[in-house]
Amino acid sequence: MCFGGGGGGPTAAEKQASVDTQLEADAVKQESIGDKAEEKRDDIVDALDSRGKKAGRGGGKGSGRRSLYSSGSAAGYLGRFD
Q1: 59-72 in b/e burial notation, b at 16+ Cβ within 10 A?
Q2: What is the pTM assigned to this prediction?
Q3: Which among 64, 66, 63 has a CA at the least distance from the CA of 75?
Q4: Band (51; pLDDT cuts 50, 70, 90)
């Protein structure tokens, strides 16, 4: 059994090679993350654009959210509490 005698640890060159390898792996990982984020962003933009085209961009009756202050000729939801 060897209890810390003799051999020594990694050399400076081995340590530097390990650091270089780790930096390269991190750069590849960051590039992959950036590509995936850009792809997701494009997918979201496409989904929102197609959704807006289906709904007619708020042009139809009953599309979109209703106002809490007024709804056409009525006073609206908040008007009930005055």
Answers
A1: eeeeeeeeeeeeee
A2: 0.47
A3: 66
A4: confident
The amino acid sitting at 2 is: C
C-alpha distances (whole Å) from 23 to each of 7, 16, 28, 31 are 28, 11, 9, 12
d(CA 31, CA 50): 29
Q: Residue 69 corresponds to which amino acid?
A: Y
Beta bridge mates, 71: 74
Q: Which two tokens stand for residue 59?
A: 């042009």
Cα–Cα distance, 55 to 60 (Å, whole number): 7
Of 32, 41, 36, 64, whose CA–CA distance to 51 is shortest? 64
Q: Which amino acid is at 58?
A: G
**2-26, pLDDT tens digit by residue?**
666 566 788 999 999 999 999 999 9
Mean pLDDT of the region 23-47: 95
